Amino acid sequence: MTSFNVNFSEFEGKKILITGASTGIGAELAKAFAQQGAKVGLHYFSSEDAANQLAADIRKSGGSVELVRANASNSKELAAAVKDVAERLGGINGLINNAGGMVRRVPYAEASDKDYDEIMDLNARSIIVASKAALPYLKAEGGFVINTTSIAARNGASGGAGLYGSSKAFVSNVTRGMAKEWIEYGVRVNAVAPGVITTPFHERYSTQAQLDAMLKTVPQGRLGQAQDCVGAFLFLASQALSGYIIGQTIEVNGGQLMP
What we know:
Structural class: alpha/beta
CATH superfamily: NAD(P)-binding Rossmann-like Domain
Strand content: 5-15%
Strand order of the largest sheet: 3-2-1-4-5-6-7
Largest sheet: 7 strands, parallel
Low-confidence stretches: none
Radius of gyration: 17 Å
Mean pLDDT: 93
Number of strands: 7
Helix content: 40-55%
Shape: globular
CATH class: Alpha Beta
């Protein structure tokens, strides 16, 4: 499958920070926005080699990118990283909160405080921390926030992914509440909810048997790829295409969920 290839001239020179952008959906977003002329802030934590290679590829193609490393579960680190990359980019016009992960599969009956804290800190609290840190820059010219939630936010998840799904439901509701509060600053807030996307996420957390079972529930007859999500993010980032859309979540799942 080829990468998303549409020209949105409005992104030329815009400064866009993408958290969790070293692999998977985040990496495809970094490449796509760079291809549209945006200056990309590429946040990563554990996948340093992948982040460096991605940055090198973007620069080789003529794109502009700044790397920033931080543990998204650590509020102080993440807020400092947002400020750091904003200073290097010369501001922030858009923030994509893509950092997250299942951490581990754990049934509710076995979940500990440690499980709850680690999953919620990574997927839920990080959204608020990064967005709050970016807000002064976003307010300067008007801008956007796009949160990555999940199909698991609506279907409750399964196979020990319930806490993850609940953390993403938090993200979905934060998207709506933040959209109401921040539109007065000219900042649009929306979300994208991927379905089953074949990225390192599922390589880490899902067995082949689990993926095969999920595939049977997708009407389109295939699991998604990271590139399948790019168009929804570009659409929500575009003032021209979605300037009157706030607090919404676009489901990208091949028909697996039709709310």
